[in-house]
Amino acid sequence: MIMNDVKNYKHVLDIGSNVGDITRKLLEDKDNFVYSIEPIKNLYDNLKNLESNYSNLKVLNCAVSKEEGTQTFYINEPHYTSSLKKFNDPVKNGWPSSLSYNQEVIVETYKLSTIIKFLGLEGKIIEYIKIDTQGSDLDVIESAENFLENIKEIKCEAFYSNENTELYENEGKVEDIIKFMENNNFMMVENEVNETRLWSDLTFKNKKFIY
After folding, report:
1. pLDDT tens-digit profile of 117-169?
2. In what order do the strands lie in the sheet with 69-77?
3. pLDDT digit string, tens, across residues 155-180
4. Cα 35 from Cα 194, distance rounded (Å)
5. In terms of DSSP bridges, do strands 153-159 and 126-131 run parallel, antiparallel, or are they unpaired?
6. Dihedral through CA 201, CA 140, CA 135, CA 25, nearest 10?
7. What is the per-residue pLDDT for 92?
8. What is the distance between the alpha carbons of residues 135 and 104, in angstroms, rounded to a whole number?
9. Distance between CA 64 and CA 66 in Å, rounded?
10. Which one of 18, 33, 55, 98 is most buried, counting C-beta atoms within 10 A?
11. Smallest Cα–Cα separation from 76: which of 135, 130, 36, 131?
12. What percent of the chain is predicted at pLDDT more than 90?
């Protein structure tokens, strides 16, 4: 559990940190305490080295899922397309030929609700969560369970796809994520559609903290 020295910070999470671009951006605000979560071991190790330079950073080596325990994690090329969800045939489904499967590893997985409790954030407001888990974003959000009501803002990735165009098996789709968030008292405030129009970055704010 993270100790009481973070109680005056704004708590922010970077789930699926990869090389840490967003983590570093969030660290620019000295009022933030950043929790960076990355399942790929070598990427985690690089992020872990940053902890010695930042007293407001905690890095965790795991994936976030609705199922706790261990799961197969698919390492793909480029590495930022790696996911708990398996690739469909990218080229067949209209995606670039540069996308490919590389290897499988076993990673530890926890619900977001479990991580929030582990970090000592029960009863605290979570200012912001960025999620980029390549098809698993809706699973991550759902795994927050009752703690969802204490999150002010969430930014996630969602796909415009059907069963014939999915990049990942059972990937989180735009309409499903929007519906879930609206049903849980969030409103969408930004929809950044990728130039390929295959996916979007969606930002939601909790109405509880707006009105």
Report:
1. 999 999 999 999 999 999 999 999 999 999 999 999 999 999 998 777 889 99
2. 63-64, 100-110, 69-77
3. 999 999 877 788 999 999 999 999 99
4. 27
5. parallel
6. 40
7. 67
8. 17
9. 7
10. 33
11. 135
12. 80
Given the candidates 3.40.50.150, 3.20.20.450, 3.40.50.1000, 3.40.350.10, the CATH classification of the domain at 4-64+111-209 is 3.40.50.150
| Phi and psi, residue 4, nearest 5° | -70, -10
Q: Tokens for 12?
A: 């922010």
Check residue 172 and report its DSSP letter: P
For 131, the token pair is: 């999620």
Hey, which residues does 135 pair with through a beta bridge? none
CB 64 within 8 A of CB 15: yes
* Among candidate residues 8, 4, 60, the one with its CA nearest the CA of residue 32: 8
